[in-house]
Amino acid sequence: MVEKIVKTEEQWREELSDEEFRVLREAGTEAPFTGEYTDTETEGVYACRACGTELFRSTEKFHSGCGWPSFFSALSGDRIIEIDDYALGMKRTEVRCAACDSHLGHVFAGEGYATPTDLRYCINSVSLTLQPSQQ
């Protein structure tokens, strides 16, 4: 179980850049193919940019061609929260950090990627920081 991090929106606004706040705290989306980690192949662990909770491993990252970093599995089930999202008039599944409740992106199933799971965690680069593995 992850430790809960509770801050006011004012505290988050002081700690995050305008773009980070828009995506992480207001459930925004960065433009496709513009994110820092879209094509990154560095080995390591991806953590929540807002609170540092480890979320995804580079070994579960794959090139989906969608314009955002894609992962076929989260680090563990207690690190993320999945929420039904009807904001665009269709059902999607929003992914949030379980520790700080920050928006990360969405998860999609049944798209036919050749991965070990039937999932694509489509995550905003601005929601993540990469902690490279020690070589």
Could you walk me through the main structural features you see in this protein, from its secondary elements to its overall organization?
The chain is mainly beta and 135 residues long. It has a single domain, classed as Beta Complex (Metal Binding Protein, Guanine Nucleotide Exchange Factor, Chain A), CATH 2.170.150.20. It is built from 2 helices and 9 strands. A hairpin with a 7-residue loop joins strand 3 (61-62) and strand 4 (70-71). The longest helix has 7 residues, at 9-15.
What would you say about this model in short?
The chain is mainly β and about 140 residues long. It has 2 helices and 9 strands, in the order ααβββββββββ.
How many domains in all? 1
Question: Biggest sheet: strands side by side, in what order?
Answer: 3-4-8-7-6-5
- Alpha-beta classification: mainly beta
Number of helical elements: 2
Number of strands: 9
What is the element string, with H for helices and E for strands? HHEEEEEEEEE
Based on CA inertia axes, which overall geometry fits?
globular
Percent of residues in beta strands: 25-35%
Largest sheet: 6 strands, antiparallel
Q: Which blocks of ≥5 consecutive residues have pLDDT under 50?
A: none
